Every structure is written in structure tokens, then in C-alpha cells.
Amino acid sequence: MFGSASHGTNAFFAGGFKISKSGVEVVSIVEKYNAETKTWASIHVMHRRRKSCSACFLHGKFYVLGGQNENDENLNCGESYDEETDSWELIPNMLANVYLSFFQAPPRIAVVNDNLYLLETSLNELLVYNVNTNTWKKLWNYTCESRFN
Q1: Cα(104)–Cα(68) distance, rounded to whole angstroms?
Q2: Cα–Cα distance between 66 and 86 in angstroms, integer?
Q3: Which of 3, 88, 128, 137 supports an S-S bond with 55, CB 3.0-4.6 Å?
Q4: Looking at domain 3-141, which of 3.40.50.10070, 3.90.1150.10, 2.120.10.80, 3.40.50.1860 is its CATH number?
Q5: pTM for the model
Q6: At residue 46, does pLDDT exceed 90?
Q7: Using CB atoms within 10 A of its CB, is residue 45 exposed (0-12), middle (13-18) or buried (19+)?
Q8: Contacts with 74 (C-beta within 8 Å, 6 or more apart), sequence order
């Protein structure tokens, strides 16, 4: 229910939820684990609380995208974390033109050669993200039967 990605000896974990006596709370917390020193560190919280999100490293930054808020509504924004400045940048409408149903959270993403790809299973499309323009480009349609869109 959280997004995670690794970079070097660090693993980052973002969002998700916590359970307390008062109920279930969707969170915006982010934690980093250093496998070399075997230590945990909290980093700045994200702008949005999110669960069922995806995460990756792209161009040296930690990206968290999509997911759902505390009302189970799909989020179309993303965020990027710059470790050098220790700051988050909100990316409004990062997924605005991407159709994601409730069942597609978290978004199916992968980074290859520093390019972010998204597999959109309802329309059977493979998309690539342009970080400079905050837009997605359809690469091709694929034919694959999916039981859960």
C-alpha cells in the first residue's frame, strides 16, 4: 500500500497507511533505509497523503505518483524529491491524461535507461513520460488479455 524504490544503497518508502486506535490513516510520511549502515531516517513528508502509489528514481530524483487519498479517490498528481535540496516538488496533473481505474492503483510503472514508462491496462497502451513537459506520449497499443483492469 506504499510506494518504494531503491537508489544505490538506499531504499525509499513513501505513503501508505497506519493503523491506530482511532482507525486507519493515509499518510504522507517518507522513510529511507541505508542498507550499508543498516539505519533508518525520516525525510520530509510529501505534499499529499497517498496510499497505493507507485515510486521510482528518475534523473536522480525520487518520484511518487498516483495512488489514492484518504477518501479512496485516485490522485492524478505526482511528487519528486531532491535529496540534495531535501525538498519535494508537487507535480500537478502528472496523471491527468492517463486513464486509471480504481483497480489500477498503484500505477504500473518502470524506469528503463532513465525513461519512465507506464502500462495502462484498460486501454492496452504503453506510455512514456516527458519530465520536461509533464506529458505522456503513447508509444503503442499492445494486445494482452488482462483479467483485472
Answers
A1: 10
A2: 21
A3: 3
A4: 2.120.10.80
A5: 0.88
A6: yes
A7: middle
A8: 66, 67, 68, 100, 102, 105
Domain coordinates in residue numbering, the chain: 3-141
Question: Helix (H, G, I), strand (E, B), or coil: what is residue 84?
Answer: coil
Task: Tell how strand 135-141 and strand 23-26 pair up.
Answer: unpaired
Listed range (2-16, 20-34, 64-78, 109-123) with the worst mean pLDDT: 109-123
Exposed (0-12), middle (13-18) or buried (19+): which is 81, by Cβ within 10 Å? buried
**Residue 126 burial (10 A CB sphere; 0-12, 13-18, 19+):** middle
Residue 32 is which amino acid?
Answer: K
Handedness of CA 62, 88, 49, 38 (dihedral sign): positive
Q: Say which amino acid occupies 29.
A: I
Q: Quick count: other Cβ atoms within 10 Å of Cβ 62?
A: 25
